[in-house]
Amino acid sequence: MSFNTSNLDVSIVVPVYGGSDALPELHQRLAACMQESGLSWELVLVDDRGRSESWPAICAIAQAHSQVTGLRLSRNFGQHAATICGIEQARGRWIVTLDDDLEHPPEAIPALLAAGSDGHPLVYGVFPQRTHSRLRNLSSELMRWTLKRAFPDLNEHYSSFRAIHAPLAHQLTGFQVSKPYIDGMLSWMTSSARSVEVSHGERQHGDSSYTWRKLVSHAINIFVTFSLLPLRIASYGGGALALASFIYMLFVVYGYFSGRITNPGYTSLMSVILFACGIQLLILGVLGEYISRLMGATYRKPVYLIETRTPGTSPDARS
Questions:
Q1: Beta 10-16 vs 41-47: how paired, if at all?
Q2: In 3-state terms, what secondary structure has residue 251?
C-alpha cells in the first residue's frame, strides 16, 4: 500500500464533532508547542458533522494558517472513521491523533514522539487521573477490564491520544470495516507499543458528545465486530442450558417412574419453556448481530466519504 509522505515531522489529526469552540486555542497551543520543539507539522481537522458551527470554524482556521487542512465528511461516520480519514490524508512521518476538547494536552506530543521509534511504532498517552466524573471513570475502567479479556493483545493503556509511525498508521486504511475500532485494529497489527503518562486536561467548552446511549452502542459494536466473546458466551450458555435441561429431564423421568411425581405442575413446566425460549432468542440475537456485520462487510461500504475540503487542499495539492 502506498501513501504520501513529505518532510513533515508530524501530522496532528483531530476529529471534530462537538468541540469547535476549543479549536482556536487548540491550534494556538499546538503552534507554540511545535515551534518550541522545532518540529515541522500540519494539522488535519476532520468535521464529523456534529455541530453546524464546526465547519465554519475549521474553514476560518485553515484560511488563516497554511499548515491547517480541513475535511468535511458527508455525514456523521463516528470518531474512529473520521480519524482514519485524517490519517489517510496525513503526510507526516509520525501521525498523532487527539480529541478536539483539549482534554489531551498538545504540549505532551513531543514526549509521545520521543518514546516512539522504528521498533516501537505506536505510543499511547495515558492518564493516571482523569478529570471526568466518578461514574464516568468507573464505567471506563470497567470497559477497559472487559475489553482486555475480550482482546488479550489489546494494549491495556489504550486511548485516543496516540502517536503512530506513518507506515503503520496508513495500513489502517486497508481495513474494509464499516464501523472501525482503531485500537482493536492496531492490536492486530503490532504488539510493540509504549505508553507515556500525561496529565488529563479540563474540558473548557461544552459537554462530552459521548452520551450513555452512544457509549453502549460503541461498546456493542466493538464486541460484535472485533471479538468472538459474545458468540462464545452464547455458545457456552446454550450448551449449559442444554445440559441443565437434560439433567432436569432425567430428574422428571426418574420421578415419574419412582412415583414421586404424580401431577407435574403447570407453573414449573411453563417456567422451563419460557426460560429456554428466552435463551434461544438471545442466542439468535447474537448470531443475527454477527450476520449483519458480515452483510455489511459484503456490501463493502466505504468507511467514510469526504464531501468537501478547505480551499487549496485538493488531493492533487497534497501528493
A1: parallel
A2: helix
- What tens digit of pLDDT does each residue of 98-133 get? 998 888 999 999 999 999 998 999 999 988 766 555
Q: How far apart are CA 283 and CA 231, in angstroms?
A: 8
d(CA 248, CA 207): 53
Average pLDDT over residues 183-202: 85
Which residues 6+ apart lie within 8 Å of 170 measured at CB?
A: 1, 3, 87, 88
State the Cα–Cα distance between residues 24 and 38, nearest whole angstrom: 21
Task: Determine contact, residues 96/162, Cβ cutoff 8 Å.
Answer: yes
User: Which three cell numbers, joined as nine digits, stand for 314?
Assistant: 485538493
Q: Which pTM does this prediction carry?
A: 0.72
Task: Give the CA-trace dihedral at 162, 91, 182, 70, to 10 degrees.
Answer: 100
Backbone dihedral angles phi then psi of residue 101, each to the nearest 5 degrees:
-105, 5
DSSP one-letter string for 263-316: S--HHHHHHHHHHHHHHHHHHHHHHHHHHHHHHHHHHT--S--EEEE-TT--TG
SS3 96: strand
